[in-house]
């Protein structure tokens, strides 16, 4: 399949993530980039902009603004041109999906392709059925590559409300986290980098309400933020990045954002029960040093 990778307002983080895919040589045997800003391609950016080169998939990296141009042409005009001929459009990363950190750029009306944070923009309605969103800062390369292979094989992808494949975004980062027992008994971590303790209650970990597969499909096949002792930053979510990333905002001791599917009353009930337990085994690990 022929692929066009179009970079809008971006830091190229998703490109660098993709280049770390361990089987990229095999991928490049199965897919052809008609244009990519880093990988050798058959056409230049000027060729892409001035002509409508046949291709099957349009990948968009970076936030969108009508003011932003590539080769002196609005990036929105380029998207509109190629959206008419491709089978699928894939937003690669949180910026292309929700606007991301570049919502604060100097370009007016900067957003994702279809969404500005959680708000649907009503833009590009004619290509909604063609679009697949892959949020993340950056996207895990296996999520991107496996989605492209699914498109190549005409797999019917089941998508969530933000057009993300449920295969990768129906879970939370909390699923598979090695610190789940500490979470259940409210044993908090006291220092970044430690292997024990939960970082949700005091250190801003957003894993219980962030939809991603980071603890199921490990980065570089070995690790994730929470396994390394760093709080999840919620980089796949519409409102990323939040302020005060490493703090848990609380109201009267209750975290402002509760785990997905857990109401405040349920949380208070479980927290009350948890206080009745004193798990020496878990506490001992933290304070042995």
How would you sum up this structure, described in words?
The chain is α/β, with parallel strands linked by helices. It has two domains: 2-165, Rossmann fold; 171-289, Cytochrome-c3 Hydrogenase, Chain A, domain 2 (Irregular), CATH 4.10.480. It is 27% helix and 12% strand. The protein is built from eleven helices and eleven strands. It has a five-stranded parallel β-sheet with strand order 2-1-3-6-9, with helices on both faces. A two-stranded antiparallel sheet has the order 4-5. A hairpin with a 2-residue loop joins strand 7 and strand 8 (119-120). The chain is elongated and about 70 Å long.
Summarize the entry for a quick read.
By secondary structure, the protein is α/β, with parallel strands linked by helices.
Give me some keywords for this one:
alpha/beta; 12% strand; two-stranded antiparallel sheet; single chain; 27% helix; 11 helices; Cytochrome-c3 Hydrogenase, Chain A, domain 2; 289 residues; 5-stranded parallel β-sheet
Major β-sheet profile: 5 strands, parallel
Number of helices, counting only DSSP H or I runs of 4 residues or more: 11
How many β strands by DSSP?
Answer: 11
Fraction in beta strands: 5-15%
Q: List the uncertain runs.
A: none
Subcellular location: Cell envelope
Family: Belongs to the [NiFe]/[NiFeSe] hydrogenase small subunit family.
GO biological process, one term: anaerobic respiration
Cofactor: [4Fe-4S] cluster
